[in-house]
Structure formats: structure tokens, C-alpha cells
Amino acid sequence: MSKFTETGWKNKLTRPLLASGMAIALVVCFGAYKMIKPVAAKAAVPVMAAPAAALDENSVTALLSLDHAMETLAARVTPAIVNVAVTSQAKPDNADNEVPDDLQQFFGQQFGGQFGGRRRLQPQIEHGIGSGVVISPDGYIVTNNHVIDGAVDIRVTMTDRRILKAKLIGSDTLTDLAVIKVEGTNLPSVPWGDSVALRPGQTVLAFGNPYGFRFTVTRGIVSALNRPNPFADDRRKPGEFIQTDAAINPGNSGGPLVNARGEVVGINTFLVSPSGSFSGMGFAIPAQIVRPTVETLIRDGKVTHGYMGIGINDVTPENSKFFDMKENIGAVVTQVEPNSPGGKAGLKVGDVITELNGKTVNDAGQLQMEIGQRRPDSTINLKVLRGGKTVDLEVTLEAMGTRDAEGNAAGVAGRGKPRWGVGLSDITPDVRQQIQAPSDVHGAVIERVVPGSAADNANLQRGDVIVQVNRHDVQSAADVQKALADLPKGEDALLLIWSNGGSTFRVMHAGDGA
Q: C-alpha angle with apex 359: 229 to 494, nearest 5 degrees?
């Protein structure tokens, strides 16, 4: 018998005993009262002061109105929330690593662990619990891909305690979204909202089943918007996450984040916490990503994402001057894969993409999301700023996939000057193998970084490869050493750094000794 069931029986047995005990106590007390009544009648009876009056209703009208509005909103949305229980086949190569180690350390758990994701019961079978939201009266339900990943059986519990068997319609690993379906008609559902219209400070509610406590609602605000992709395991995953302080805990995965109108503006997916439980920072996939992905999954059963084959960063106040940008908007190209759609169209490292099909590109996350939502073989028009001049390029997207690039290169060892606080060497075949750099990555590998130096402040690390200095390619440690040495004192340096399969621009600020 389960612990929960035992507790239920204990409660049923205890209540009658408590009731009987209270009756006996009342009889004894009444008898005592009758016995001592004559004596007590002669004693002075203290008079209790009147209790403080409650606040006048007119004084708290605003609070009462807010409470009523929240109650109405919760009552409207909760019937469309489901508890998703999954039985899945354990993956031998990844059974205990639902989240990469670096995310486990920084983010705690991606709604995994007890009640929230996967719980190992035996070597080959796993059971997990997550959340979902009904988006149509005929039974389509949105949840997270990591909730149903590998499922051999999916069952959902409705708020009226019905347990229904669900089938998987389709899932998408890249966006971490999935659609499941139960048989039914006139099921309670929640409409889509416009996540683009959200603003920091707006009220939002998070619904779900945290730690197995079913149908929980928490209230908070939109803390921030357009948070970037934190997943180091795949740089292609879109960001643009909604950050909220509405409490989100393990088990909330797949539940909706709704606005004050009761519309789905996001799907809760992970939290930032050193302990793995709520610490004020929960994140949701915005509806602008969720809705088109879900509609495609319902129509086709799968999603194929557009792919351009480039790496991108934001234009920032630090690096904008190096790209002749007057405003801190746009996406800087940091990497172009050989024979990729971007490479064939003529994109170059250092280009700043400012428009996509006539629409302003504000940052790298927006561009990544826009490209990922487009179908392969579609053609897009980019406006690019290159060397202070505008260039129009046409790119035909491909289906997103992986490209392998391997090879060997040789070089001669060298060292960087202590002026910038970085020690360098050439990329030898052994070094290339150790840092797993493809054959088209050339430059100087960082061997050491002096604490507190310009390199340290730029977050450079041992094993990073300097590919460019101030927009000029470098082929060796000597090239980097000369380029940095030739910079006038007091002038910053813009570096293009390759690390862990991706490239980013970093600014080394000139210190007193530089």
C-alpha cells in the first residue's frame, strides 16, 4: 500500500476517535461547570475589551478587486491544466543526464528529479510527471519535449480527476515543445496570447503541478524579455525566453504562463537556481515560438527548421564602434560555415545583419528565432552593414542539420606579450585534437590568462582560439602578438574568439599598461 493510501486510512480512523474524545471532554467540562457555578457566581467576572475592528471595506476596495480578478482568472484557466504522467524507456547513454553538467551546476535541474521529470525506478523504465495545457476543445495539449521524451505510455489527469490516455502527435527537440492529444469534446481550453506585446512589470500567472502538487497557480510579473539561449549543448536552440518571478518549480514543465486576460503567452520550461528549486527566476518559451511550432506539429507531426549556417552575436555598446554602428542593434556574424546557405550568399565574418525581409533585426536572438521558424528552401532578403556600407543579400535556407568538419593544421609556437595578460601558442595537430577545433579554424590558442588582466576581464579562457584581431584574420600566435603590439596605447582590441564549437566577439579594454 502506498504511503499516500496509508495516510488516507489513518485520517479516516482518526477522525471518529477525535470526535468521540471531544464529546467526552465536553461532558466533563459541562459537569465541572455545574459544580463550580455557585462559587463562580460570587466572583467578579472580568470584562474583555472589544476586539479591534476590521478595516473598512472602502479602504481596501482596490485589494479586494484585485483578489476577485485573480480568483476569476485562476478559475477560468485551471480547468484547462493537465497533469502529464509518463512511462518511458531509459536511455542507456543519457539516462542520468537529462541536463548537461554545466546546466545542472548553474540552473539546478530542468524540472527533473523527484516529481518534476525523470525518476529512475528500475534500470530500463522511468516514470515522470509534468504539466500541460489544453489548447483546443477536441483535446490537443501542449507540453515540453523533455517531459514526454522517450515515452511509451502517456496519461493525463484532468482537474475533474478523470485520467485519460494520450497519444503523441509530434515533438521538437530544438524548441523543447511537444503536442499530445486525448479523445474528448468540449474540453476546457485556453486561447493564445501575444507574447510580443508583453512588457516587464505586467502580471502573469504560472500554472502546473510542481513537486506533484496538482493544479497549482502562482502569481508574479514579467521580470524580463528576450533572454538568450543558455543551453551550451546546442547553440542553435532559440532563446527569446520570458523571465518571470511567478514561482516555477520542478513539475511545472509544460504548464502555461498566462497574462491577465487568461491567454497563453508562454510555456514554462526551466528555472535558474543553485538548489534546483524556485529562487525567483523562472523561464518560459514565448508564444511567438510556441504557437507556430505547435501548429506545424499538429499539421505535419514534425518541425523542420530553417538553417543559414552562421554564428551570430549582439551588437553592444562595447563592440558597436568596431562595426561602424551608430546604434546598438543588429546581429554580428561571428562564423560562416563553408558551403552553408549564408556562405553561398556571400555573408562574411564581421557583417552586421540589420534587416530581415524589410524588418529591423534588433538582436541575435530575434534573428535566430526568425530563421528557425522559417521553412527550408524558403528565400530571405538580408540587409547587411559591411565596412560602413549597406549590402543586400538573398539567402535560400536549408533544413537544419549537423555539419562535420575535421582536419589537421600545423604551426610554430609563440607567445603573447604580457601587456594584455594573455599567453598564446599556435594550433598544432595535438592541440587541435584536444580542443576539438575543426580544420577551418585558424589563429592562436590561448595557453594562459593573467588574473585581473585585460584578457581576464574579457572572459578569455585557456583553450580559446583567437581567430581575428580588430576584424583582421590571424593565422598564428605571431600574427596575434604583432596585431596586439601594434595597437596604440589606450586603444581597445576587438577579438573574434572560437570556443566550444562557436564564435563570439570579445572586447579587450586597454588598461593602464596597455
A: 55
Nearest alpha carbon to residue 140 among 171, 168, 177, 173: 168
- pLDDT surpasses 90 at 220: yes
DSSP classification of residue 51: P
- So which residues are the catalytic ones? 146, 176, 253
SS (H, E, C) 283-318: EEEEHHHHHHHHHHHHHHCCCCCEECCEEEEECCCC
> Contact 128/117 with Cβ under 8 angstroms?
yes
Over the Cα atoms of the chain, what is R_g?
Answer: 30
Q: Which of 419, 456, 462, 418 is nearest to 444 (CA)?
A: 462
Threshold 0.70, pTM exceeds: no
| Residue 393 neighbours by CB distance under 10 Å | 16
Backbone angles phi, psi at 243, to 5 degrees: -100, 135
Confidence of residue 89 (pLDDT cuts 50, 70, 90): confident
- Note the pLDDT tens digit of each residue in 332-370: 998 888 888 998 999 998 999 999 999 999 888 889 888
